[in-house]
Backbone:
């Protein structure tokens, strides 16, 4: 009984087998045609290449990305290149604002039967002549040295770079800065290689990419005032008198040196050499111990009186 049932099933399968296979094939073809004709839409990005005449440039990059939607039969969408590109050519002789509207005609290698919608299709460009000029390089320091230390000096090599960009923006550029240099907790001098930060004039704006930045670290200095320092006259050939009799000074040095200083370590004086008898206003000079800097003298000038020799 089972055998008879099996033979019956086989007869059903193989009866008119050619017609059955042809029917399946026709069904697949019809399904493919229907799917191919079905309208679909996909998202895409368009790389816009901006072409300028020699000697001209645009503000910003020469390549821009625009998003778009492509609509059409699925079979046609399969032919769309993975990378869509559009070319924009700017005529020479025109400077200033240059608005352009992108369209389907700007896009290369796209089936003209497909519908293309470019989102935000306008390019608002600013065009100007190119200019090259030397611009100083300035360091960008982040953080602070360790307690008790300061940055005494920063030396950059090279300290200028040639900058190329549209004239309007290149003329406004006062400095080109390095990328941030971390000086946190520094206790000793060091030299670091630092990249230059983009000034926003385009990819090829800078002739120099890296510089050597030498950081000179020293101990923090403290100010201290010393008063009642006698004011002397030096180089006099005649009897001489000076007012005021005493001056005060403000000096600066590291704590280790400052702790050993006293007023008698300083000498305040005015020069009388070569002066004939009379009355003069002279600068007050201070002789300092080593490693000490003078911040101010009060007063800065003294009244010198030279009498005739008796």
Residues:
């Amino acid at each position: 009984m089972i055998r008879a049932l099996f033979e019956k099933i086989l007869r059903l399968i193989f009866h008119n087998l050619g017609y059955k296979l042809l029917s399946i094939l026709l069904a697949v073809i019809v399904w493919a045609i229907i799917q191919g004709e079905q309208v679909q839409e996909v998202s895409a990005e368009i790389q816009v290449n901006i072409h300028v005449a020699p000697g001209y440039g645009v503000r910003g990059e020469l390549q821009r990305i625009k998003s778009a939607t492509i609509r059409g039969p699925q079979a046609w969408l399969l032919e769309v290149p993975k990378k869509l590109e559009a070319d924009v050519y700017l005529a020479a002789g025109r400077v200033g604002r240059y608005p352009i509207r992108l369209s389907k005609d700007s896009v290369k290698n796209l089936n003209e039967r497909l519908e293309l919608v470019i989102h935000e299709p306008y390019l608002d460009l600013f065009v100007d002549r190119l200019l090259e000029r030397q611009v100083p390089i300035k360091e960008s320091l982040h953080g602070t040295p360790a307690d008790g230390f300061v940055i005494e000096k920063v030396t950059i090599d090279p300290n200028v770079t040639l900058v190329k960009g549209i004239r309007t923006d290149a003329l406004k550029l006062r400095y080109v800065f390095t990328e941030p240099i971390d000086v946190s907790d520094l206790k000793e001098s060091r030299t670091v290689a630092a990249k230059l930060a983009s000034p926003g004039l385009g990819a090829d704006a800078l002739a120099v990419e890296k510089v050597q930045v030498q950081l000179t670290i020293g101990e923090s200095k403290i100010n201290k005032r010393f008063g009642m320092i006698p004011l002397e006259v030096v180089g006099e050939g005649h009897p001489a008198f000076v007012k005021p009799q005493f001056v005060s000074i403000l000096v600066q040095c590291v704590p280790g040196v400052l702790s050993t200083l006293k007023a008698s370590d300083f000498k305040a004086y005015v020069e009388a050499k070569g002066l004939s008898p009379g009355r003069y206003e002279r600068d007050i000079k201070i002789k300092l111990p080593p490693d000490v800097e003078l911040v101010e003298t009060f007063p800065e000038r003294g009244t010198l009186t030279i009498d005739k020799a008796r």
Observations:
- Helices lie at 2-14, 17-37, 74-77, 167-170, 255-258.
- Residues 222-306 form a domain with the RNA Polymerase Alpha Subunit; Chain A, domain 2 fold (CATH 2.170.120.30).
- The chain has a mean pLDDT of 88.
